[in-house]
Amino acid sequence: MGIDYTKRPPSTAPAAPNLAAPAPAAPTPAAATAGAPPVRLTKVTLTKAAPTVSLTKHGGASGLLRVNLNWDAKAPERGFFKKHTQLDLDLGCLYEFSDGSKGVVQAMGNAFSATDRSRRRIIWLDGDDRSGKVTTGENLFVDLANASVVKRILVFALIYEGAANWAAANALATLVPLGAPPVEIRLDDPRDGARICAIAMIENKSGEIVVRREINYLNGAQRLLDETYGWGMNWARGRK
């Protein structure tokens, strides 16, 4: 099941009548809705019950797509003497292009961008928020002007430092397409001890760009994420 945010009917309330002249006859339903623009919601929230949305069907599959991650930086530890530890979450993605090339975009290993074979930058990060205090969070960009290059992109968040406490992180991912309402995915249903969470899959399905909520917590790192989703890459230890 997906979400279609253009299905709400437009308003059909007639304008107030001119008291100086006889009130016009009430319009027929066809006349009241003719030419009315579709009503769009201010945002879309993907859930277990409604996990997918088509950006193509709603005019958001061209131009720049921004994926934002925000979270609470301070996480309380468990125990009698509770204190707060700093949470450092990293936003990144695994990608696969239509020509078969694959890779990862992340702060670790300074892999901040991905280009196609024509050296066009398709995916990139705007930086690395080590504190969680940056109001804009971390942002991943996808150039959908070249959407034909993209086969699939798996957006993920990794707890790089701090306790594996996703509930305390209270993280929220927001996909902001050009010309369409933002798409929110809350990192809910946390799993204790998991270090990485697959947030969303962005896929090119025969020219249609579809976003699917994942929210899949894994007790491992990028290698396990790769194995779970069948990316088939080789991994080595890295730092940032």
How would you describe the overall organization of this protein?
It is a single chain. It is built from 3 helices and 15 strands. It is mainly β and 240 residues long. A 7-stranded mixed sheet has the order 1-13-12-3-10-9-8, with no helix packed on it.
Helical fraction equals under 10%
Write down the overall mean pLDDT: 81
List low-pLDDT spans: 1-37
- Round the Cα radius of gyration to an integer and report it: 22 Å
The coarse silhouette is globular
**What's the order of the H and E elements?**
HEEEEEEEEEEEHEEEEH
Number of strands: 15
For the biggest β-sheet, the strand order reads 1-13-12-3-10-9-8
Mind describing the biggest β-sheet? 7 strands, mixed
Structural class: mainly beta
Strand content: 35-45%
From the N-terminal CA to the C-terminal CA, the straight-line distance is: 39 Å
Instruction: Please work out how many helical segments DSSP would assign.
Output: 3
